[in-house]
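<instruction>
Derive structure tokens from the sequence
<entry> Chain with its tokenised backbone below:
===
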Amino acid sequence: MMKRLKRLALACAVAPLMGVLPASAMTVNYDCRACETGTRFYQARELSLAWTGPANAHLYADLITAVRGAASHGLDPADYHLALLEGADPFQADLELDEVATDAYLTLAAHLLSGRLNPVTIEPDWTAARRGRDLVAYLQAALGNDAVAESLEALAPDQPGYHALRAALTRFETIAAAGGWPGVDAGPTLRPGDRGPRVAQIRARLGATGDLAAAMPPTDPATLPPDPEYFDPALDMAVRIFQHRASLDADGVVGAMTVAQLNTSADQRVEQIRANLERWRWLPEDLGRRHIRVNIADYSLEARNDGVVERTHDVIVGRLYRRTPVFSASMTYFVINPWWETPPSLAARDKLPAFRADPGAVTRLGFQVIDRSGTLVDPATIDWASVPANNFPYRLRQAPGPLNALGEVKFMFPNPHNVYLHDTPTRGLFAQTRRDFSSGCVRVRDPLALAEWVAAESPGMTPARLQSIAAGDDETRISLTRAIPVHILYWTAVLDSDTGVRFVNDVYDRDAVLIAALDSPPPPLE
């Protein structure tokens, strides 16, 4: 917070003001993380102590309570000097200990407000504005109102998804502390009606998380307990509950994928929840009254209005080697019956090999070929085998129609990634559970219904009008009266109305990097 000489100078200045002896010359060793903010804090209060001395010790005690409570947010209380604070005597006026307490408050406040990590270090494409506040004034008010712990809690995201993750964190930490749950051996697929020792393992596993109790019907005390090795209807229901929470097909059939999820440890779930709590803290306070939220990992889109999910859509996202980026932008218009201006990279990387293999596909798929002077070129005159990929000399455009790569509708929100939402002619892919098939853009199921929602506040753009436009062949741009925020996000643990929290496959393997960063020493705030 200050160099040692500055601390001693401040100590000498504080003593006359407070009527107490300054701190001793012995330096308190700690990593100062909110140094600049802390300096401004003491300047604003004219060098008076905030936490130590008989008049302030109760605030110090409240701070320790709040720091311990950081664990309920998936944060490590040790990062906020807990051991040092617990081992000191706040009734003794001590400048250096006061500085430690201030640094603990300001660092925890900043982490709850906008994340322990800078999201750009994890998601380089991050563009959403993080929450901000004048923490010097905020801390002054908290001290004046005797509301240290309450003020810190108030900085955390006040979102149902965040609250659900905190509750799940407590639940899974309790299970982990008790030793976790038993595993299930690998083996053949198990179905209702089967019998054997692996069925008993599944029963014990689901009993540990309460899924079996939730599935059991009320029983007469005189009823004999179920055969543990028999896959009965209650166990079938418990398996389905678990499969839903693990984002698997809830069919009651225990195959390799279900066994793998059953054997995911309680400690692993705790870390998964911690990662997603951090992702929530990166988001702005206001995502938009009407906004669209895409979860890449869950292959899902939500259209929200005043906190209510009014529409949900399945989506297809980018392949592992062409990943959909995480970012936010504003949708300003959409296009019905769009032409597809093929990006140069895709033209050379995807279309050129296809046209070399089948030159007739150019015309059959509705492509126009345009040279560098802007002149249309007859594709039949082109020797595709001799066209270079490195310096691809043409521009490709695909006409509207059933084979158009964008389908019926594309939704535009200008961004540096050239990523947008659109329809697709390969709609059968939506039947797949794992849907990472695109080149980075987000393909939407039932896009015309989403267009109706998007245009709901644009005068004259009724569902009937949009349907009429779509029935034609002309490309039509629909400008929005009010821009709609679009948030392309990545969450692997999400709010679920049935199970509290639902876990999602980490399709891009992003959790491990985030968890490792959370377990590393936090960086300075400035």
Observations:
- The chain has 18 helices and 15 strands.
